[in-house]
Amino acid sequence: MKIHKAWWLGIRDIQIMPAPRHRPQSRRPQWIIILVFLVSVSLIGAYVYGSRHYSACYFFSSSSCISFKQWLPPSPARVFTDDEIAARVVIRDILNMHPMQSKNPKIAFMFLTPGSLPFEKLWEKFFLGHEDRFSIYIHASREKPKHVSPLFIDRDIHSKKVAWGKISMVDAEKRLLANALKDAENQHFVLLSDSCVPIHDFDYVYNYLMDANVSFIDCFEDPGPHGTGRYSNHMLPEIEKKDWRKGAQWFTMKRQHALLVMADSLYYLKFKHFCKPGMEGRNCYADEHYLPTLFHMVDPSGIANWSVTHVDWSEGKWHPKAYRAQDVTFELLRNITSIDVSFHVTSNEKKVLQQRPCLWNGVKRPCYLFARKFYPETLDKMMRYISNYTI
Ligand SMILES: *[C@@H]1O[C@H](CO)[C@@H](O)[C@H](O)[C@H]1NC(C)=O
Ligand SMILES: *[C@@H]1O[C@H](CO)[C@@H](O)[C@H](O)[C@H]1NC(C)=O
Ligand SMILES: *[C@@H]1O[C@H](CO)[C@@H](O)[C@H](O)[C@H]1NC(C)=O
Q1: Does ligand 3 have an atom closer than 6 angstroms to the CB of 326?
Q2: Which of 56, 67, 108, 310 could form a disulfide with 180 if both were Cys (CB 3.0 to 4.6 A apart)?
Q3: Which residue has the higher pLDDT, 288 or 6?
Q4: pLDDT of 31 strictly over 80
C-alpha cells in the first residue's frame, strides 16, 4: 500500500513540477535528480506490477512501451472479510510452527471403507515387527467391519454414512484425521481405501514418508469440464477460478497440514455449499477439489502434487482399472514400483498429458508406496508376492 501511494505522489509531482527557470548553473544536477527519480519510479513500477505485467522499458522510448493505462496501479487488493483475516492468521501460524518433536514418531494409517477390509491379512504382514511405529484407524461408513487381524481390533472410530462425491466423504477424512491427531506421536497421516495394497515394505514406506519434506497431496490444474468446469462463482471472493485444482483424494500429510485441515472452516464451508453433485446443473465432487485447492492456495510448495497411491486410469473409463487375480503378476508389481514420473491428463478435448518427475526432497525417486484398486480375490497372490517384490 505504501508503495502505491509513493508512486502516485511521484507521478503527481512530475506533472506539477515547474519547468526550470533562470538557474542555468543548477540545470545539470536537477536533470540528474529527475533522471534518478524516473528510474526509481520505473523500478517501483516493476516491483508493484511484478514480473507478470511489467515489460522492461523506459519512459523515454514511448512507442515500444506499454501504454500508460497499464501503468496505472492495479486495482487495490480486495478487502478481506473478518473470517478471512482470522483464517489467514491461523493458517500462517500453523505453517510457521516448528513441528512438534516426538520421541517415538509414528505413521497413522487411516482406512476409509464401507465395511470389512479384504486386505487385513496383507496389511498385518506389512505391519508385523514394527509395532511401535504405526497406528491404525478405521472409518467404516456402511457396516461394522469383521476383523481378522488383532492389529485391527478396536481400531474402528465413530463413523457416519458417506455418499460418493459428497461432502460427507471429506467429513469422514476429517473425522479420521481428528482421531489420529489425538495421538501426539502420529507425525504423518495416510489415507487408504479398502481396495489399497502396500507395494513396499514397512521400513521403505516409513522412511519415504517421515523423511519427506512435503505432504503427498495430488494436485493439478485441469482446464476441462471435470476440472475448472466444476468451479462455481459462488466460491468467490475467497476462492478464485485461477486457484481451482483437482486431485485424487488418497493423500498422505504431515501433522502440521493435518492440523491446518482441522483449523479450516472458511474454505471447507465454501466446498460444502457450492461443490456437490448437481450443483448448477454440473457435478462437483468436494473430495477431488477441496484439499488440492486449499493447499494450492495456502502452501503450494509444501505439497508434492502427486499421490503415493497408484491407480491406473489408462483405460479411459469412469472408474480406474481394478485388478483381478489373473492380473497380479511379478511384472505388474515391478512396473508399478518402478514408475518415477507422475501423469495427469486434462479433461478437455485436447487431453493434454502433464508429466512431472517424482522429486523426493529434490531427488528423482519412484512415485508410489501403495496401489489400488485390487479385488479381494487378489489377496492370496498378494500375500505370496509381498515378501518377494518389496524393496
Ligand atoms: C507443486 O506445484 C506448485 C504449483 O502449483 C509448485 O509451486 C510446487 O513447487 C510444486 N511442488 C513440488 C514439490 O514441486
Ligand atoms: C510392464 O511394462 C512394460 C513396459 O512398459 C509393458 O510392456 C508391460 O505390458 C507391462 N506389464 C504389465 C503386466 O503391466
Ligand atoms: C525440500 O527439499 C528440496 C531439496 O533439498 C528443496 O529444494 C525444497 O525446497 C524443499 N521443500 C520444502 C517445502 O522444504
Answers
A1: no
A2: 108
A3: 288
A4: no
Summarize pLDDT for 76-107 with one digit per residue, the tens: 678 888 999 999 999 999 999 887 788 899 99
Grid cell listed for 355: 508429466
- 132 within 8 A of 106, measured Cβ to Cβ: yes
Whether 302 lines ligand 3, by a CB cut-off of 6 Å, is: yes
Burial 143-181 (b: 16+ CB within 10 A, else e): eebebebebbeebbbebeebeebbbbbbbbbbbbbebbb
Residue 385: the pLDDT is 87
Residue nearest to atom 12 of ligand 2 (CA): 332
Residue 216 CA, ligand 3 centroid: distance in Å = 13
**pLDDT single digits (tens) 223-270:** 988 888 899 889 899 999 999 999 999 999 999 999 999 999 999 999
Supply the residue whose CA is at minimum distance from atom 1 of ligand 3: 361
Ligand nearest to C-alpha 327: 2
Cα(202) to ligand 3 centroid in Å equals: 24
The HSE-up count of residue 266 (CA atoms within 13 Å, CB side) is 22
Pocket of ligand 2 contains residue 331 by CB under 6 Å: yes
| pLDDT number for residue 38 | 54
Residue with cell 518433536: 101
Query: Which residue has its alpha carbon closest to ligand 3 atom 7?
Result: 362
Buried b (16+ CB within 10 A) or exposed e, 304-321: bbbbbbbbbeeeeeeebe
381 lines ligand 1 (CB under 6 A): no
How large is the average pLDDT for residues 139-168? 92
The answer to whether residue 37 scores a pLDDT higher than 80 is no
Beta-strand relationship, 106-113 and 353-357 = unpaired
Q: Which atom of ligand 2 is nearest to the CA of 331?
A: 13
**C-beta separation of 122 from 97 below 8 A:** no
